[in-house]
Amino acid sequence: EPEVTQTPSHQVTQMGQEVILRCVPISNHLYFYWYRQILGQKVEFLVSFYNNEISEKSEIFDDQFSVERPDGSNFTLKIRSTKLEDSAMYFCASSELYTGELFFGEGSRLTVL
Amino acid sequence: DQQVKQNSPSLSVQEGRISILNCDYTNSMFDYFLWYKKYPAEGPTFLISISSIKDKNEDGRFTVFLNKSAKHLSLHIVPSQPGDSAVYFCAARDGTSYGKLTFGQGTILTVHP
């Protein structure tokens, strides 16, 4: 069964460092997303991406964040200068249609020290 | 952000019985609702969805009911199985939004053998 894969599964970084989280969406999906879940809190939307551009972003997704689809398969989330409060589980998701169900990866746990 | 609320943090049921998980929402622009199941250290897994033009959708042991006037939906699992033990998230999508889902806090379901 097709699935969304994410790397790394866990990354520990120092505050102020840049981090790149990688995702391989399901191959025939056209819409890509990043969500995050801070420990003990809700899963929250960060950004959606379609046709090589951001479709929508939340207020969390400030200038420190960026997304990119560098080739035909990968979808990345970059955090330029990490803060302690960026520590969370980051989930990549994809969907065939924007009206359809989102399929999530297993997540990348980011720990900022 | 309290647009989607799951007021029961946990639910415990006996194997073979019905599990009923509830979800309330406040945003009238939501037109599509989904339930996700999440095991520890995994991403949310899509379970079942319902469009706002329907009041019921069934898939095997899982049925979702939508009461638009009450802004309430529920997930019924019959019969419940120990493997159903997980965190269940209700999520909703605004029809004007590109795949942005708003999640509830989740309900931990435990099914006892």
Explained architecture:
The complex is a heterodimer of chains A (113) and B (113). Chain A is built from no helices and eleven strands. Chain A has 113 residues and is mainly β. In chain A, the strands form two sheets. In chain A, strands 2, 4, 5, 6, 9, 10 and 11 form a seven-stranded mixed β-sheet that branches. By secondary structure, chain B is mainly β. In chain B, 0% of the residues lie in helices and 57% in strands. The chains are: A mainly beta (113), B mainly beta (113). At the A-B interface, strand 4, strand 5, strand 9 and strand 10 of A face strand 4, strand 5 and strand 10 of B.
Short description:
Chain A is an all-beta fold. Chain A has strands spanning 5-7, 10-13, 19-24, 31-37, 43-50, 53-57, 65-68, 75-79, 88-95, 103-104, 108-112. With 113 residues, chain B is mostly beta strands.
Could you report the average pLDDT of chain B, rounded to the nearest whole number? 94
Apparent shape of chain A = globular
SSE string of chain B: EEEEEEEEEEE
Uncertain stretches of 5 or more adjacent residues of chain A: none
Beta-strand content estimate of chain A: over 45%
Beta-strand share of residues of chain B: over 45%
Output the radius of gyration of chain B.
13 Å
What is the count of DSSP helices of chain B, taking H or I runs of 4+ residues? Answer: 0
The overall pLDDT average of chain A reads 93
